[in-house]
Amino acid sequence: MLLLLIGIPLRPKNALPDQLQLSMINRIHLPFFKIFSAVALTFGTLSANAQMSASLPYKQDAADTSAINSEYIEEKDFTSVKTKPSVSIFDNVSENDLQKKVSLSLNNSGDRKQLMNYLKQLEVGDNGSAGNEARNKTLFKFANLFARLKLYPLAMKCFFKTLQKNKQKHSNEEVAVSDSMGIDDSPSPDLPINTKDDSLAYVQSLQVRSEKSVRTTYENISGTFNDGKQAVAYALLFHVKQPSPGKKKVHVLAYTGHTYITLIKYNTDSTYVSCSFGFYPKKDHIFSATPWFPSTSSQFKNDAGHKWDEIIGKFISKKSFDKILKLTKEYNDVDYHLSYNNCTDFSLQAAGMAGISISNTEGKWFMGHGNNPGVTGQSILQGGYGTTDKQPVATLFKSLNTSVTEK
Fold first, then answer.
1. How many structural domains is the chain composed of?
2. Single pTM value for the model
3. DSSP character at residue 93
4. What is the pLDDT of residues 192-226, one digit of tens each?
5. By the 8 A CB rule, do 395 and 179 touch?
6. What residues pair up with 387 in beta bridges, in sequence order?
């Protein structure tokens, strides 16, 4: 068959002697035979390798674990991995550069999966190892980063992982993780980082792009948390936007800043819902909510995309969560007053129900005085905050925006 393919004719009856014929064949066809043999050998090798690869399960290079497509990995695979996070685009970069990288990653499905897998590797790293403190710092850095990107549920998840690791490092402490979260005698939740955070973070990143706060109602706020799912944990964040970031100014011209809160409900199926909102004046006329006419009608606004300079966050109990929703309902029917019933007054009351205290929040202005964002934010900057529920200050998440840290 091979002789037919390379063009050697069959020997007829009156053919030349065998030795002479072989000599002619070698002179004419030997170069072609060598080329054909090399090609045949190459294709044979490739075919064999392809068949062998198809018969074996795919195993990715260990140095490229950050590129794993998390959609096709079961949860048990995540928890079984106990390796040091591989080299990633998120390693060894400044906070500003890291924030830019993560912000861009949120818009790309593949990059988001790589980000979530990187966070998962940080989460399941060996406890008590030499790299545990470094992982803790990295998780806290990501908590700050996600807060700045207004992805508050993911930010508090990362912060929770630091609480877990601190507890594991100091196993003899009296305060358990569940106690520090204020959860009512329930087992400590896990709040795992998984594939659901991928889609949830992407949807939320789209929702917070607009900085404009639009009107909402108590019914809309409370309805957000009526998702028909069982909760495993709750959290509150207290936000302050100062009139002049990093300065104790009550106002800059007519701008007085803003204070608002975020409530988060984490579910047993690894989903979550959150709502950021604040108490606002609803101007009855042009001079409403000014020193001349400090009282006016009120309204709530959705502050999911609102800027902030300082944040204090805390995991809270369902009892505290329900109290804050009740407070929100009560504020739905009261007037706004510039001096004693403003956005900071509402948010400070909610924070108090969450076990957060902030001192030195009052200031003075023309024809008035009271709690305000400028003084409150400066108090947070100077460490004037703590807890009222006998929990360590370490259970509070504090984050500052770049506008403050650059000063």
1. 2
2. 0.75
3. -
4. 888 889 888 888 888 888 889 999 999 999 999 99
5. no
6. 356
